């Protein structure tokens, strides 16, 4: 078990009990599932799109079922035979009525757990400030508190854990902290950088989540969880700078940055989009400090635990530098992003389907070409017209999209369901096919598909297909407005991917060259 992700050996064994994990495609759920398996539990993972879990190392040891917490029938089915049910989802970012959606989903989950005779519900919520009426809380924290109450009133013994800032490689809180501190030696910041808080390491969060499953039946309450350090966000940035061996940061707080302005500021500087940054910023308006540590009575802390801020930051930073990040905040789909599968029939009744096709013969082995294809994005870029990609990413950020800064979890390998800049991996067949679905803001749905194979003569062939399914007249106008740039963007991509593969295999440039069978024809 790795030091950052898994609970300690002192956690009680699961003895084969069945744990239902919702949110298994998310940051915490994706780490909790293997931690439960390693502790002796059987795991059933509920996912709207089970294929997103297909390539995860722990998925073969778990039962993966399709369902959604807003669908009562699928939740009831998933609850069959469950001993402990983990609620790790929320509807933040799905629209202005996300509080209602959260309320209804929690009610469905609570009723299904009660009817199925579940022994315990465990929920990870947000730490709320002492003495602040709920009416003055941010919608994010208010909804988290309401969900906790619904689960506590379900008739099923519930453990509601409340955490402030979670520090771990790949968490949204850690990524926000890391990019703000590393990129801005001088910062004009919101006044909330002076608000006190109590961060907690993801390693400790997982230990408390796993340990909560074995609590006595009479326990039905909330627990505050946090590390040993209470500090301001300004102090946290300075502590990160020390751990990362950066010069001391100059931080100048100003009172004029509202949570909305703060979220856009964070979105411009960090990979965290405004839709996620805003609740993080709003949560820091009030002091969030633990008022008790009663959790230790039921889940005893190992020596040296919970981890202090410096050790939590060092562990997270080490895993980022070693490219061993198990899950990221972007593991979960962006709310509102398209989830439709790629239409396989361009003549279907839904309207026009536009395509840009490119094909090249490559002076390299299929294996060398595949390494380039699977390594696309992130630090490697997109092999064509960098300015166009950068501008498109910046425009996406300005309208509230994810932009290009999400990068990738691993520099060499991809998994179905994970994010890749402003794309998401929809399908991957190692050595042959990579299909990406766009999560940028578009008047339609878009995919990018890359295929590696051999032609009839046995030569390595690269095929590339960009697909766009427009919505309305705006979608039609969008496609035709960008069509003149396809030769530079998509044609350049195909050409440079082929050349990169040939270079990496040290192919001689002796006239064999790279045969060019480029095809470019948008076909409605």
UniProtKB/TrEMBL annotation:
InterPro entries on file: ComplexI_NDUFA9_subunit (IPR051207), DUF2867 (IPR021295), NAD(P)-bd_dom (IPR016040), NAD(P)-bd_dom_sf (IPR036291), START-like_dom_sf (IPR023393)
Domain NAD(P)-binding, residue spans: 23-164
Highest taxon listed in the record's lineage: Bacteria
Protein name stated in the entry: DUF2867 domain-containing protein
Disordered: annotated segments: 504-524
Ranges that cross the membrane: none
CDD domains in the cross-refs: SDR_a2
Pfam families per record: DUF2867, NAD_binding_10
